[in-house]
Amino acid sequence: MDFVFLLKQHVGAPSEALVQENDFVKRGQIIAEKPQGALGANIFSSVDGKVKTVDTDRIVVEESQTDFTKYIPLQGATPKELIEESGIVGLGGAGFPTSVKLNLHFEGKGTVIINAAECEPILSHNIARIEKEPEKLLDGLAIIMKLVNAQKGIVAVKGIHKEVIEKLEKANTDSRVSIHELDNIYPMGEERAIVRETLGILLEPEQLPMAADAVVVNSETTFRIREAVEDKKPLIDKDMTVAGKLKENASIHVLLDVPLGMSVAKVLEKAGGLGGEYGELIMGGPFTGKRTSLEAPIIKTTGGIIAAENFMPGPTKIGLLVCACGANRERLEEQASSMGSKVVGVEYCKQAKQVKNTRKCENPGKCPGQVQKVMALKKTGAQALLISNCTDCTNTVMSCAPQLKLPVYHCTDGALRAVNYKLIRRFRREGE
């Protein structure tokens, strides 16, 4: 079986290969390093085997009788050195090198917030890992707090996960650490939403949590930091959720410690196999995931593989309403094409502010209304809408689109239908 290691699995410069064709590598051996003086991350082989190919963008290793209980340990002496050497990046999907993110020192205050929101629907591997090993998450938090000299730690988790919260509270022996319960809406796991909910500070779209004397770290990233520091283990395995149109129809599987570089096809086999019909394969979650293929390799930021339901036939003309919290314009255009619909208009949520090369919501998860945008798309001749809005924004779209006789499709529909989840449309907050 071939394992493919892309040389760019992170924010920054591609890693530079350290191996040549026909070299034999071991699990845990560094095979590509970040360029000197550049933003990047090291890459390690997750298997034993012979190097088949070294290209400008990838290294291919033919796996051979790997003992997945073993690995070559890291050589660093301090937590800072080990985290940088390990190749850990933001494992929630951002992919920013963790050693750079944690290269800070709070003076007399500061908060480390663990993002355990499991924000995207269907994805459930983060909660499964925490439920299994709550002590290790708290150990990782302690390592980060000491590294950045933080005075307080918070684990932010949705309140629906009562058993996980109870286990965390029982395992927690540090008076500086608290568990914060989040509402069960999307995008509660967005970095600025986490800061707003836990610290009561709404950051500007351009601001980082440092502006609130905080740093936000994904829960799996925290687990892998603990592994690097305490077990000297490089980043070679990934937790993920595999779901959708599998042989066990509408099933959801959590796979822990999947070796990086394994193909999507092999991961699907580990979850029981792909079903006969599906609309598309999504790498990631229903909101922000991207279309992928059976041949694509699992990378550091892979959180899920979803075999979505067949596409519903769309209208002849469709309008796109793009939200900064969900699928971008290109992703919606891709889905519209698969529905057989021509895009006649594109509007952006009024809170989707342009920041450098992307858009960020001015107040994630809290929507001021979308009536003007919906009416503008109606004027373009759109016969229906395809949207990527967060839970609250979708609520406001549904308050006006039906009155304008505009059916609404959502970028998450195919994924949610594939697991028999309720579609994202209107919802009621508690107390309404």
Automatic annotation (TrEMBL):
**NADH-ubiquinone oxidoreductase 51kDa subunit FMN-binding domain ranges (all copies):** 83-225
Using the record for this protein, list the coiled-coil segments as residue ranges, or answer none.
Answer: none
Specify the superkingdom.
Bacteria
Q: Which UniProt keywords apply?
A: 4Fe-4S, Electron transport, Iron, Iron-sulfur, Metal-binding, Repeat, Transport
The RnfC Barrel sandwich hybrid domain sits at 3-60
Enumerate the InterPro entries for this protein. Ion_transpt_RnfC/RsxC, Nuo51_FMN-bd, Nuo51_FMN-bd_sf, PR_assoc_PrdC, RnfC_N
PANTHER family from the UniProt entry: ION-TRANSLOCATING OXIDOREDUCTASE COMPLEX SUBUNIT C (PTHR43034)
The protein here is known as: Proline reductase-associated electron transfer protein PrdC
What organism is this sequence from? Clostridium lapidicellarium
* Gene designation per UniProt: prdC
